[in-house]
Write a structure and sequence with these properties.
Helices cover 21% and strands 40% of the residues. By secondary structure, it is of the alpha/beta class.
Length: 125
């Protein structure tokens, strides 16, 4: 069982604004913050962003991929829209992904540092 995940970011303030908008659509909020880290979650920090100001810009080819569970297709849609509105890029519009299993409904985005973030829910047929 995974307790938490983290992704590296070059600009902590800008990434905090991005993730507040995006993760808020899934019911996560900023719960903890330090000089070089911010934790988001529902009851405890389960998703962290960590400042790595000296990291090389990764663009759209970052190997990081984090998938977050949504309660509905509407939340997946809102996640995608919020990411685009907050400066992220689409890496797969909301929709069914039958190649990943029956009822797999997901959206994929890239944050400003190239991290690939996914929201998924499962549609009952």
């Amino acid at each position: 069982m995974i307790d938490h995940v983290s992704v590296a970011v070059r600009d902590l303030a800008a990434s905090t604004r991005f993730y507040e908008a995006v993760l808020g659509t899934l019911g996560l909020e900023k719960l903890d913050a330090g000089p070089a880290t911010v934790g988001f979650g529902k009851k405890y920090p389960e998703f962290w962003i960590n400042l790595r100001s000296d990291m090389t810009p990764v663009g759209a080819t970052s190997g990081a991929h984090v998938c977050l569970r949504a309660r509905s297709t509407g939340m997946v849609d809102a996640f995608h829209a919020a990411a685009l509105g907050a400066g992220g890029a689409s890496d797969g519009a909301p929709g069914l992904r039958p190649q990943h299993g029956e009822g797999y409904y997901a959206a994929f985005v890239r944050d400003p540092d190239g991290n690939r973030i996914e929201a998924v829910t499962f549609v009952k047929g």
